[in-house]
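We treat protein structure as text, and this decision shapes the records that our systems exchange. We quote a single record here, exactly as it is kept in our systems:
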Amino acid sequence: MNGDPPSFDPNEITDLKSARGLLAQLQTLITALTGLITELRESLAAKDAENAELKRLVFGQKSERASGYRTSTGKRKGSPLTPDEEEERRAAAQRKRKKNREERAAKLEEERVLHPAPTTCPACKSTGPFTELPSDISSEIEYITERLMHLTHVMEKKLCSCGHIFSAPAPQRVTEGCHYGSGLHAYAVVSKCADSMPLNRISKRFARAGLHMSRSTLTDLFHRTAEMLDPIHKRLLELVAASTYVNADETSQPVMDEKKCRRGYIWTFITAGIIAYVFSASRSGKTPVKLLEGTTGKLQVDGYTGYNDVCVPDGRERVGCIAHCRRYFHKARDKCPEEADHCIGVIRELYQVEYDAAERNVLGTEAHRLMRKLRDGPLLEQWKSWLEEKKGEHTPKSPMGKAIRYTLNQWKYVTRFLEDPKLRLDNNVSEAALRIIALGRDNFRWVGHDDSGENLAILQTIVATCVANDVNPQEYIADVLLRVQTHPDSKIDELLPMNWRPVA
């Protein structure tokens, strides 16, 4: 409201004319106040919507999680337990913790530390002889501070009586003239790609250990490693393209090129045992086309049109993501809570079928397909009819209108899981794979140029695929960096993370 509302003085009322003037002032005042109230209400509604969106952005990952799944026995998770059930739950949790602790310890190198018993009996002061009994055993997992070492290689040289001089071969280096070993290369790569550490922090960590290495030297080391492992990356992309089921997604990656920051993108393409990344200067569909053009099978993505050129009749069959539908309905809860909760409940029931299939250990089997057909099929038919009915009640740009229209537009894609039990309901595996990219983006902000983005994608692929196959990425990179130089191209599959075996 602009300006102050008009005012009046009751003492000025002296005749009919002044009374009429006063009435006119009062009417003007009422109009002004009504307008002010309307403006305040609109402002308050806008603030409420803004606050709701901010809460979703901050707390959405947790608040959007489905809750209240029922077990196969019909008991809702989170409901109160009986004392016996609570005791069994505690006992089961304790057994699980013990098992996990033993499994973790079994994977670690064991070192036995002998603690000798006193040579004199504490009770009678006797010096023996004593009878040996089985030792007491206790164990713990300890962390030994990582060490940087200066390795000096001494190659023996000998002179034969025939006059021939021979010596032990020199150890292989990462590159000729390189003064840093493969283990140090691997440590720097894993620190950045797995732990999301910027190179300047890695440099500080080295400095604390006694090695002063500049950020530029670390940058050269990082790029050198990517160039040498590029054949591994290319082969992994070939295997992704040959797969019949691929999940894909993309996220932004800023590029600081010639003091001007622009937006690049890192794409992820996932199949069984492989998490691959590709860098591109734009978000156009050229990247998925370059990798997947001419291939067939399923491609599970969100609603982004950049994948349209590979999802064609003679190419990939598009599979949608039900989790994206759920997010739209979650955004609509503030305005249409009952309708949004109804849709979220339907999606929850779809995931309940997956939960039950997992409990019965039938995921991906014919039994799983029948469960989906019998339980999800009728549910989805009813839901689609409901969505079509409600479509006309909400404007296209309203939160509920957007949710309904997005779901209906994606319907044939998000329901393809009904006939193929190997298909997931959502594309969450791709989004999970991009979280490490987002975390790195938050920590080291940008890459210096497009080549840096490509090298980052190469090394992220190597590290992520190692992790997906329970391979220690640091041990893998340290070993393969030396072997890939002389390894035959025709046998490159032997060096892939899922096939890798360290040299005995």
